[in-house]
Amino acid sequence: MIAQFFVLSQRGDNIVFRDYRGEVSKGSAEIFFRKVKFWKEDEEEEAPPVFNVDGVNYIHVKIAGLFFVTTTRVNVSPSLVLELLQRIARVTKDYLGVLNEDSLRKNFVLVYELLDEVIDFGYPQTTSTEVLKSYVFNEPIVIDSTRVPPLGPASMFMQGTKKMPGTAVTKSVIVTEPGGRKREEIFVDIIEKISVTFSSSGYILTSEIDGTIQMKSYLTGSPEIRLALNEDLSIGRNSSSVYDYRSSAGGAVILDDCNFHESVRLDSFDVDRTLSLIPPDGEFAAMNYRMTQEFKPPFRVSALIEEAGQLKAEAIIKIRADFAASVTANTIIVQMPVPTYTARISFELESGAVGQTADFKEGAKRLEWCLKKIVGGSEHTLCAKLTFSQESHGNIAREAGPINMNFTIPMYNASKLQVRYLHIAKKSPSYNPYRWVRYVTQSNSYVARL
Amino acid sequence: MAPPPAPPQKSPSPSQPSGKSEVSDLKLQLRQLAGSRAPGADDSKRDLFKRVISYMTVGIDVSAAFSEMVMCSATSDIVLKKMCYLYVGNYARCHPDLALLTINFLQKDCHDEDPMIRGLALRSLCSLRVPNLVEYLVAPLGAGLKDGSSYVRMVAAVGVLKLYHISAATCLDSDFPAVLKSLMLTDPDAQVVANCLFVLQEIWNLEANKSEEASRERETLLSKKIVYYILNRIKEFNEWAQCLVLELVAKYIPSDTDDIFDIMNLLEDRLQHANGAVVLATIKVFLHLTMSMTDVHQQVYERIKAPLLTLVGSGSSEQSYAVLSHLHLLVMRAPMLFSSDYKHFYCQFSDPSYVKKLKLEMLTAIANESNTYEIVTELCEYAGNVDVPIARESIRAVGKIALQQYDVNAIVDRLLQFLEMEKDYVTAETLVLVKDLLRKYPQWSHDCIAVVGNISSKNVQEPKAKAALIWMLGEYSQDMPDAPYILESLIENWDEENAAEVRLHLLTAAMKCFFKRPPETQKALGAALAAGLADSHQDVHDRALFYYRLLQYDVSVAERVVNPPKQAVSVFADTQSSEIKDRIFDEFNSLSVVYQKPSYMFTDKEHREPFEFSEEIGNLSLGQEPVGNSPRYDESDKDLLLSTSEREENGGPSTNGPAASGYSAPTDYNSSLVSLSSQTQSETAISDPGMPKYTSQMTLAIDDLLGLSVSAAPAPPSLKLNPKAALDPGTFQRKWGQLAVSISQDCSVSPQGIAALTTPQALIRHMQANSIQCIASGGQSPNFKFFFFAQKLDGPPLFFLVECIVNTSSAKAQVKIKADDATASEAFFGLFQSALSKFGVL
Prior knowledge:
The complex is a heterodimer of chains A (450) and B (842). With 450 residues, chain A is mostly beta strands. Chain A folds into three domains: 4-133, Beta-Lactamase (2-Layer Sandwich); 203-296 and 418-436, Sandwich (Immunoglobulin-like); 299-410, Immunoglobulin-like (Sandwich). Chain A is 13% helix and 41% strand. Chain A is globular and about 75 Å long. Chain B is globular, with a radius of gyration of 34 Å. Chain B is 59% helix and 5% strand. Chains A and B meet through strand 2, strand 4, helix 2, helix 4 and strand 7 of A and helix 2, helix 4, helix 8, helix 11 and helix 14 of B.
């Protein structure tokens, strides 16, 4: 089983180090860090999450710029350990409100307390924030979350939408508010990561949505909640016909597959698409789903690159936002690799462009176009003039691209999966906790080929 | 806990204290506070303790403050206590004398009225890891296991394991395992049950090779009673305990098919769990349970596809990597089942390169007639990728697909287009592929050579690619007008060529070219041989010398040796043997799958499961094909070592030899095998008791093989084989992976046969005449290995697959048969034997 657990900073310092079984030498953190830092095996530049050095298996995840690592000499289940590492990070975040190097350093004694209960002699015991509450006695030292750069998918709500209590998501589940009373509230976030690949002619080659209904509960007294999804939601497609893009009549949402948190009861799910659960404390994914059904991609991307005289070429990138004007996408980054022999690029932004920058990343041989905001329905164009240091041999389009796009669109979801209502069992007539249902769509891999 | 040498006193950054003076400062302050009852003393202690622990964390040795820390630990502040326990646990082992100081207060805390304190104290007490203090552990542990609080019992159960690791004898003598066992079956708290279970598992696993009793106990854990008891409570366990329980269930050997379906139905909803570890553990159970039921096994594959793909999409990239590795394993085992899901394995922009690599391998594996076009088109997109390693990998993937397809037309065109991209790494990879393609499809030489001829050797730098180009220059020198001159210029630069591989190829290519175009090449060959003879690399030198002497002896002999007519390669050797793949599959849901290596290759002996496959056996080159697909058949395997280890891994009911298990049939089988191969006249019943009617006939067949009654060899009239049977290697491999062994038999080969078996081809031709086709063969005297197949003549296309290992020195052949229709395999075996017996006789 697990021999050691440790958290390393980006520079390789131990923030916490717990040895459970005394089977692996204490130098393991240093061995691990050196190996990851200078990884050069199998032509890969990035260390895989699992590797073996001299009979010791190092399993790690990177969270908030920190390495969460375990070592073991046993042939364990990698999934078990990786899930456990993620969960340890999540529990820590529930306690500290914010998970980063600073908060961990300030609270390392608390983290040791947690680790004592989460793992005993290498065997996982519990990762439930609720259960752990009764074993952990240190009070978290909460760091000022307003100074913290936003991390994680939920933090995106802090930008833009003013209705949202920005600090709520970075609030410790454990600490009571200065007023002495905890605010009763629950967050339900529908987070969708979308992947789309457009062919050079703009046709959709592949598309997929990986979604999560993530909850974070600050409710006391364990009330039961019911979460109702689209009534016409159906699950499971004929596996032989994956990717047949028949348009779904009536806009029914068809998920390929989904899974649920263990607290979720599905008694009436088949009847009325309702999940019922008593939400455990802290943050957890109530449901994960995957959809390959045809959907309307939020952005249309088209690009053109042509030779324009000797040692010159011109690239035009166009983006059209195919969503309602009431919705605004933010922090959009468009990247396009250019031929390696590109020496210079001059850009022409559209007239009157605000919050746009375009840049030639010479080291990475890539052009980068950043837009602060894109309002639904609008269209944006970038024109780039490339100068080459040598003559291109043949097809420039093969030497450049594909275009990749990163974005976040709050209050928008591509799958049309909706929370019809969120019902919280009442403890008293006056009990009316805050409930926040929020949608967000993020790009996972949004690629347009040239 | 600490390694033997104390951690070095280092100061990694200026902000961190270097040690010594700070430690003595801390000691002083602690001593001042030790007896203090002043208000606020606890707060100052907390601060000091924190500093001590933070030094400990960064690796500064603060053990010098041990006695001061213990002095300060007399407190009711639970946070302080915990910090003190942590400290003590860290240093007790290297300061056993000081550890004694802590026993007192820990023992006292074990009687505290707060169950939390009792639990914490017990945990710390057991974590001291000081051998001469074990006597102090027994009583508190015994009390802890009976404690009214489930928290304390939970801690105590793990405490037993800790005690076992400090002193196994004390643990066993105190009879703790028996207590744990009864606790496991009665405790109302699921976590206590789970802890008892894993502690018992670990203890019995470690004890099993020392005592009979322990191995019996270990099997009891896998008994129906315990497995069902735990399965029925599965929803009470938390997700981690569920993983553990499922790992146990995967080793359970079901008594009948109802048993299998009951368990699967019970666990069905676990496949919908958000925790990937639970899902994978469940899948392992499903796969292992249905191993012998081909249809259901295939259904399981279909069922688990969607949940696995969902897990790949959700969670962090690390988590999806672990899941994807398992998906990769399944895809490699049964590519056909995934052929319509190929789009899921397209690389995404955000995928880390280790994920992309797995996906490329999967795409290569599942490419078939229906999807090759799309897959190759996609792969060609990656070839221009900015990520060079992935671009290379994609080109290799295209090449591999070309090698496994019948219709390579379009693919060859695309490969040739790669050469036009004029990126050196693309050219390099493509050259290597074109070479392999030509070895398999010589008919393409015309098109390829035309393009390859245009490549300037100056643009090719990578040794592998250069070697490939040179090979083609030699092999096709008659079609490439410039070949002798290109070779000549390469030979001129002999000294600048660093890679021995390239120089070796140069020698051979010069020879080949010389045989075809002597006047043009003579000079170059002379230069090459001279350079080779002067070469400092042993192999290069030897090859040059060998060629030189050959030429001196007789040029035509030299040509026959160096450039004989070649047959096209039909199948390139797989890098991983099927036994290794099966071994990895048996270790599903473990690191083996991620590393793509069985565990004996990366774990130390002491950390292996006690009966895991030993590397000595695993490395036998011509080992037995493990019957790995079906653990229960392994029990019948002739190779006792292999089968035992296999069986133990699967929690077989006995350690050695026959046992009273539900699987009595294979045991009979085993004895029959031994007698058949040792006492040739044996009349023992054969294999499966379900088909006793073939017994007498079998015996006849064996006699026949020994040349006793050749003419009487009665082939069952019912079975006729199709003389024109055809099966492609991919399908063969897939079938071989899916089907269970229906017959595994040793037989003898006649002396005439042995004499005729100078090359594998002799036997292959002979068997072909008997409508049994060879799909692959290999080996060198005295060991030859063959894979044969045959097809039933009438009715639906039913295939028989045979693995046959012949050892000419012992005159024995080992035959394993897998069949689409297992009931016909006895009859086929008769045919096969009669054919084998005639080999060399006629």
